[in-house]
Amino acid sequence: MPRPILVTIHTAALSHNLERARAAAPDARVWAVVKANAYGHGIERVFDALRSADGFAVLDLAEAQRLRALDWRGPILLLEGCFEARDLELCSRLGLWHAIHCNEQINMLAAHKTQLPHRVFLKMNAGMNRLGFTPERYRAAWTRLNALPQVDEISLMMHFSDADSPKGISAQLKAFESVTHDLPGERTLSNSAATLRHSAALAGCSDWVRPGIVLYGSAPDFPEHSATDWGLMPTMTLTSRIIGMQNLATGDSVGYGSSFIADRPLRIGVVACGYADGYPRHCGTGTPVLVNGVRTRLVARVSMDMITVDLTPVPDAAMGTEVTLWGRSSEGTVLAIDEVAQAAGTVGYELMCAVAQRVPVAVE
After folding, report:
1. Architecture in CATH of 236-363
2. Does residue 174 have an active-site annotation?
3. Contact 218, 211 (CB under 8 A)
4. Is 35 tagged catalytic?
């Protein structure tokens, strides 16, 4: 019998969340962001559920090749562009659109010999201070690109740093618009948070939106809003089962370091899941879990292959009882991945991407 741990990918939820993003930006086309192997879900597993998107946005050439192998003939955008000159050959062959965020990438494109000019997305650094040209240098970069025979069309691109927080988007949107107001080309500004939180302010400003985390059922601005608040459905469920039980007396400890000491008689369940499966080691006592769909808590430290949970709220729990670490239980109860991530001091993105290869995956 295989070890009783499983990730389930919910394809209907993926389709639902894509439509939720589209409804938030009804006048824009939608990039389905599938970088990081579709946020840990698997590009091949999510493709059919997301193929109604207008295009796919990826990080690297390997992801783009996988999409073309799935017979996707629509637009594919390389969000960070090309990393070296020879990447442009594959862009030409596969018909990829790609970001331009530095002079070195313009230089590579200027030296590239191609019969088919490229569609490029010129990125502005409006305050994120990662990739892109500052507003003061943006128009000069646009002018260089516009003069190249290797360039077919220039789209305009930026990424908000604070769309998920009270600071908001107004200053960065103003910086973008002040520089680009008279430049031709389609715009893509909105990530998940901007798409959901700032749809009114961005109406008419963005020809393409780039939903990422919302496609996978996580709130981009948790805990201010939950996934339920935004009408999102969980797309990944991590489940296991109870493989052992212990009865503790008052004063008994559990796990490495004896970090948890029972303050009363307690029954605990040992669950086949640990940090080697991708469950975050920084989750501590109190992290929520579902046992038979009933909410309870993790106790003690997370081990490599096991965690322990409080069975007090689930008196009928037994060997083999289902434990939901995040997602939707068989009983229909949902434990948001964002709650588990918060307990670990991180975000839902990381948990999705960190599920280990040894965990089997089912698609429904």
Report:
1. Beta Barrel (2.40)
2. no
3. no
4. yes
